[in-house]
Amino acid sequence: MIQxxxxxxxxxxxxxxxxxxxxRDVGPHDVQIEIHYCGVCHSDLHQIKDEWFPxxxxxxxxxxxxxxxxxxxxxxxxxxxxxxxxxxxxxxSCQVCENCKDGLEQYCLEGNTQTYNNLDRSGVPTYGGYSxxxxxxxxxxxxxxxxxSLAATAPLLCxxxxxxxxxxxxxxxxxxxxxxxxxxxxxxxxxxxxxAFGAEVTVLSTSASKEQAAKDLGAHHFVVTxxxxxxxxxxxxxxxxxxTVSAVHDMDxxxxxxxxxxxxxxxxxxxEPYSVQPFSLLTGRRSMAGSGIxxxxxxxxxxxxxxxxxxxxxxxxxxxxxITASYARMLKGDVRYRFVIDMATL
Length: 346
Prior knowledge:
It contains eleven helices and 17 strands. By secondary structure, the chain is an alpha/beta fold.
C-alpha cells in the first residue's frame, strides 16, 4: 500500500484536519499522480456536511485534481512518469453499459465511481484530491497541457466540464442568445465558454456590483435580476439559460426569460427541490433540463480546447490550512472565482 496524507472530515460536524491513510498499490492498469493542486468545489462543502446524502467518513474531498505522474502500471499506454495529468469527478465506471460505450461514463447505468465520498467496485472508500497522491485507472486519467497555468487548470476538471458539456450538447453557439445565471465558480466558466463558442452572452445576477467583472470575462450584457425594469426588458429573449445557482431561486421568473422553445439548463444543485408552475413551461413550449459533468473523452476535448484557446479558471491560490476559512468565504461569494489549494502546503 502507498502511504498518503490529506485533510479529511471525520464527521459532518467536524472541520477538515490532517489525516493519514493508505492508497492502493499501483496495479498494471493504474496511474499514480503526485497532486500539485486541487480545486475547491461548492460540492465539497455540501458533501462533508451531509447536505445531499449520507457520506462515507472519514471523507477526503476534492475532484479537481492536477499534478505529475510518478508511476504507471505495466500495461499503461497513454501516460509515463513525468507527464502532467488530471483527475475529475469520477475514477471508474462499469465500462460495458450502453452509456459507457457511448462515452457517457458520467451516466453509467450501474453508477460511476466518484472520486471521493463513494465506494469503489471492491467496496473500498474513495478519497479525493485534498491529498498528496492518488492512484487511478488509466481510462479515467486526463492529459493536461503545459501551455496553461497548472493551478488555474485544476477547476476545469469540474467547473469547466460541468459548463462545457451542456453547451456542447445543446450546440450553443453563433446566432444564439445565452444567459448565464450566477457569476461564481461555474458561472464564470459558462461565460468564457459561451463567448468562445460564439454566442451572445448575458449574465443574470442579483448583484449589480458584478457587472464590470462580467464584462471583463467577455459577457456582452448584464442584467440585475432584482431590478424589475431590467428583467422586463429581457422577457422572452433567451434561447438558453445556463443556471449555475446552488441556492433556492425563483424558477418561474427565469423560465419567463426564455424564448419560445427555449431551454433552461440546470447545473447548480440547491439543497431544496425546485418549484415550478406548469404554465411556466406550457406557455412557450419551454424546456427545463439538467446536465452533469462530461464523459472522459469530452473532458479531454474540453482540456484540449482550453489549451488551444488559452482558457483557464480565474483562481485564488490558498494554503490548505485555510480551507475552513475559504469555505466560509465561498458561501459569501467572496472569491473570484475558484479557490485552488496548493498541495505543497500539505
